[in-house]
Specification:
Elements (H helix, E strand, L loop, with lengths): L18 H12 L7 H7 L6 H4 L36 E4 L9 E4 L2 H15 L7 E6 L5 H12 L3 E6 L2 H9 L3 H21 L4 E4 L1 H8 L2 H10 L2 E4 L6 H11 L4 E8 L3 E4 L17 E2 L6 E6 L12 E9 L4 E14 L9 E7 L13
Parallel strand pairs: 3-4, 3-5, 5-6, 6-7
Antiparallel strand pairs: 1-2, 7-8, 9-13, 10-11, 11-12, 12-13
Helix pairs in contact: 4-5, 6-7
Length: about 375
């Protein structure tokens, strides 16, 4: 067994990182007879190529299929890499069901690393450690609740949870039960107001739809502006106009910082230039940086399938290349702008994420 089963597949710092090295390490691990999962090893037996020999670059990942739909039905035991079996507590995380039946992956520690990645961005902006954190987020099978628990632990903060069931809200909206959905949202807001009223909240995690609801309550706005240092948002998109209004008019004294991602693609925190840096990157966009040692994103032209130039918009193609999970060529239901690597980060970033709807598909964001 690999003696570094709880480390990323590549550990080079940004100066020495190469995406091709990560791809090669992922092929060696996930298709190694002693380390790969049953799911991928059985697939490889049907191919006319050897991924360990024939896929050595990021572009080479195009040889592999997108299996994100298949993992909705795959036995969870088939997803466990042999090299990790028995190496520690295993968790199973599932998506929120935005595109249908939930997809699931296994975790042995990657999402703890994701919390560390997110925390490093908060440290960079000197968000204080400690204090009370109000977390309005999915828990249970959803990775975000676990990441937030790890994040508060890393930052010596007190987590105050309000559970959110994104699947139930989406089901209500999908079946036209808007009044019931509104009742559930009011239930979440009531719990939020109770904590804002009885506790001093220093950091708050909230989804954009719920944050917009709270922004309509003068009482909630007053309480948040009075004590909250930073609002972290994620789980649904936020357009630039809404973001600007929240940042400059509703919560002018509160830092508003987003994170893009999901159970499959990990956490991509928002990158904001520091005062000492060039303002070239701060044009009002929400720019998100994937954790490059396990997650890479490309932006493709929806018509041609080719990578767009920097500054252009296209559809997000995500590659998950962690020790636990190999999910390449995952064409996300998101549009984004391709951003050149930012200082200290060797891989592409993405900006201004928005839903991408195809003619024959339905996307329901709900409250997450």
């Amino acid at each position: 067994m690999d003696t570094h089963e709880h480390t990323p597949l590549v550990t080079q710092g940004s100066a020495g990182f190469r995406a091709d090295d990560l791809v090669q390490a992922a092929m060696d691990w996930h298709f190694g007879p002693d380390t790969g999962s049953r799911f991928w090893l059985e697939k490889a037996r049907t191919w006319s190529f050897d991924p360990r020999k024939d896929i050595t670059t990021l572009a080479g990942l195009a040889l592999l299929p997108d299996v994100t739909d298949e993992i909705r039905r795959a036995p969870v035991g088939d997803l466990v890499p042999k090299g990790l079996a028995g190496s520690g507590p295993m968790r199973v995380f599932e998506t929120g069901g935005t595109t249908g039946r939930p997809r699931r992956i296994v975790d042995f520690g990657e999402f703890r690393r994701q919390a560390g990645w997110w925390s490093s961005f908060l440290d960079r902006e000197q968000v204080p450690h400690g204090g009370n954190w109000l977390l309005i987020a999915p828990t249970g099978p959803h990775a975000v609740g676990h990441v937030l628990r790890e994040l508060t632990a890393l930052r010596s903060a007190v987590p105050l949870h309000i559970d959110l069931d994104p699947r139930w809200v989406k089901e209500l909206m999908r079946t036209g039960r808007d009044q019931e959905a509104q009742g559930y949202i009011e239930h979440l807001v009531s719990q939020t107001m109770d904590l804002l009223t009885t506790q001093t909240i220093d950091v708050m995690f909230c989804t954009p739809p719920l944050l917009e609801v709270l922004a309509q309550s003068p009482r909630a706005v007053d309480l948040i502006n009075r004590s909250v240092h930073t609002i972290l948002w994620s789980g649904a998109s936020m357009d630039r106009d809404t973001r600007d209004i929240l940042r400059h008019e509703v919560f002018p004294g509160v830092r508003l910082r987003g994170a893009y991602g999901n159970t499959i693609t990990g956490v991509s925190p928002e990158y904001v230039p520091l005062p000492s840096q060039s303002p070239a990157h701060d044009d009002g966009s929400a720019v998100f940086v994937p954790c490059y040692t396990g997650f890479l994103m490309e932006i493709l032209d929806p018509a041609s399938g080719e990578r767009v130039p920097y500054g252009a918009r296209g559809r997000v193609l995500a590659h998950t290349l962690t020790r636990e999970t190999l999910l390449p060529n995952n064409l996300e239901r998101d549009l984004a702008t391709r951003i050149a690597p930012l200082p200290g980060h060797p891989a592409d970033a993405v900006a201004d994420v928005a839903p991408y709807a195809e003619a024959d598909s339905e996307i329901i964001e709900g409250v997450y």
